[in-house]
Amino acid sequence: MELFLRYVRENWADLLVFTGQHIMMVLIGLLLALVVGIPLGILASRNRVSARIILTLANIIQVFPSLALLVLLMVVFGLGTTTVVAGLFLYSLLPVIRNTYVGLTQVDKSIMEAGKGVGMSPLQIMLNVQLPLALPFMLTGIRIAAVIAIGVATIAPLVGGDGLGREIYSGINMNNSARLYAGAIPAAILALLADFALERLQNGTRVAGR
Amino acid sequence: MIRFENVRKIYDDGFEALKKINLEIKEGELTVLIGPSGCGKSTLMKHINRLNNPTSGKIFIRGKDISSIDPTQLRRSIGYVIQNVGLFPHMNIARNVAVVPKLLKWDKENTAHKVDELLRMVNLDPDVYRYRYPSELSGGQQQRIGVIRALAADPDVILLDEPFSALDPISREQLQDELIRLQQELKKTIVFVTHDMDEAIKIADTIVLMKSGEIVQTGSPEHILRHPANEFVTSFIGKKHLTTDTLDPGLTVDDVMSVNPVTASPERGMAAAIQFMERHRVDSLIIVGKKRELLGYVSVFNVLKGYRHEDSRLGDIMKPFVHVVESGSSVALALTLMNEHGLPYVPVVRDGHLVGLVTRGSVVRHMAEIYNPDDMSLEELTAEAEKLKEETPLEPAEEEEEEEGGEHA
Ligand SMILES: Nc1ncnc2c1ncn2[C@@H]1O[C@H](COP(=O)(O)OP(=O)(O)O)[C@@H](O)[C@H]1O
Ligand SMILES: [Mg+2]
To answer: Which of B49, B90, B96, B149 to mutate to test binding with chain A, by most A CBs within 10 Å of its CB?
Structure first.
């Protein structure tokens, strides 16, 4: 414990950089997942066939072991952060797509018909009715995706990436538990914080909507 | 105003929901579409704002074929209210009401003004309700918001699809009254779907009665009640709505008369008569002989006039009946007599002997018993009887006679 504290005191600047890298990788991966996943979720909600295809594909990606996926991506992108971000993106995709899809399809048909009945165009129904009502579900998806991504990002160094994983693997390699903790504890805290913050956000939208 | 010409609707699954509908909905009227569940009321109504499009046939609004109008544009010019869930749960009341003005790009100030005006119109304080969410309102309040949302952009035509059917009876009555009031104020063309005949009779100018995709009968509530087109209409109207016009012709006075009227013998004196009337709370007595032969009647005024003479008897001051009905005559005959001569009651006689009394109250009571033992509460019945009594001050009060078995003095 003393060792750990001393290590942190002496290396806090490096740790901060690792944490920053970690967050950046997760954010970029997540953002890409939102940009791609939300439209795919919307597409899936439009009809049965598209739902089957999109959800099945996203599921297949998800069942790949994370290390195997990263190694496969490394073949394409080479060693480095790009591979990690691509992996995080793919891993976040399913929760985003699935929750967008569920959120959109659970909206009461009669509320959508009311929107149609008052003269909204299909786009206006999507923007003014369906998406706002699906928001709490979509936030659940983002929350799950964020927590998974923060975890998966710790294996980044294996494919040449940065982040808190560096400390963890160095700690393992050098049999230095202080170092290992210095990587693992901030990663765990990050995951908890993300979970907590997104839950708050989610509750906020729920209160406004009900 | 709105005209359906040979409109047929076959859904994608091959179901023929509308069969050659021809219908004219008049401007400024409240037209009610009614019929059993699944008969195509909603289907028909949704053709007006193009939520449905006809398989064949045409629909015109003000002479214009609506298939040539852009559906979203058309819908913004027509108010639409649906059963309970029509409000957007994620929008506050002001935003819900302002949905159509916003789609029509009204400026903010105008819109806010209109929202407040409409809220006040249905007795909801804008300052209290503007920022509430639908789930924070009662069912009745939500449905009021549904109605004013449909009114917000001042459409000429408003469609309401079973808007009140999920409400409790009291809220429903209130909203029906408000709708009638709004209709009288605003003179909109309203199309209203319901499956509740009471509701239709209460609010409709014109009722359109449907059955399995066809219109069975169209007309005012009065017309449909009096002249149901066929057996189906009669059964759908329900027995309780039948008026005296449609009284079973076989019904006789014996079926409806009260058999224990308050009677007195001609030998009675004035003081005794007054006491007797007071006890039974009646204002006239029927005078019968020892074998219940009908002799005449006295009213309380006659009695008071004769009171001065201590030895006068009821027999001296009584008046003979001009109109009586024979036992076995039709109820219609008795009612006609009462109506034409303004009589509070007519005695029923057999061979000159009194067997009963037909009063308006006794007819009402009889009909109520036959037609709706469950539907009308005792209070309603009593209220009905009271009303009739006020109209006919000379009628013997019959609650008494039931208790005391029609005493004879
Ligand atoms: N979209 C649809 N596809 C197929 N059949 C439908 C559709 N909508 C309604 N129907 C059928 O058409 C009939 C009339 O429906 P509807 O107009 O909703 O009846 P109502 O409003 O009188 O209860 C019903 O038998 C219903 O099942
Ligand atoms: Mg219906």
So the answer is: B90
Find residue B356's DSSP bridge partners.
Answer: B348
Residue B351's pLDDT band (cuts 50, 70, 90):
confident
Report the pLDDT averaged over residues B1-17.
95
Which of A117, A120, A133 has its CB closest to that of B90?
A133
Contact B202, B30 (CB under 8 A): no
CATH 3.10.580.10 domain range(s) in chain B:
253-400
Amino acid at residue number B252: T
Going by alpha carbons, the residue nearest to atom 19 of ligand 1 is B38
For strand B325-326 and strand B345-350, is the pairing parallel, antiparallel, or unpaired? parallel
Residues A41 and A98: beta-carbon distance below 8 Å: yes
Q: What is the mean pLDDT of chain B?
A: 84
Amino acid letter, A116: K
Q: How far apart are CA B171 and CA A75, in angstroms?
A: 69
Rounded CA-CA distance B203/B208 in Å is 13
Full 3-state SS string of B274-294: HHHHHHHCCCEEEEECCCCEE
% residues pLDDT > 70 (chain A): 98
Q: Which residues of A touch B80 (CB under 8 A)?
A: 114, 117-118
CB contacts, 8 Å: B103 with chain A? 118-120, 124
- What fold does the segment set B2-238 form as a domain? Rossmann fold (3.40.50)
Q: What is the mean pLDDT of residues A35-48?
A: 93
CA distance B211 to B353: 52
CATH class for the domain made up of B253-400: alpha beta
The distance from CA B143 to its chain's CA centroid, rounded to whole angstroms, is: 22
- Helix (H/G/I), strand (E/B), else coil: B399: helix
Which range has the top average pLDDT, B25-39, B229-243, B333-347? B25-39
Task: Give the architecture (CATH level 2) of A2-209.
Answer: Orthogonal Bundle (1.10)
Q: Where in chain B is the domain with CATH 3.40.50.300?
A: 2-238
DSSP 8-state secondary structure symbol assigned to residue A128: I
Q: Quote the percentage of chain B above a pLDDT of 90.
A: 44
> Is residue B400 very low, low, confident or very high in pLDDT (cuts 50, 70, 90)?
very low
Q: How far apart are CA B353 and CA B346, in angstroms?
A: 13
Q: What is the DSSP letter of B125?
A: -
Tally Cβ neighbours within 10 Å of residue B255: 15
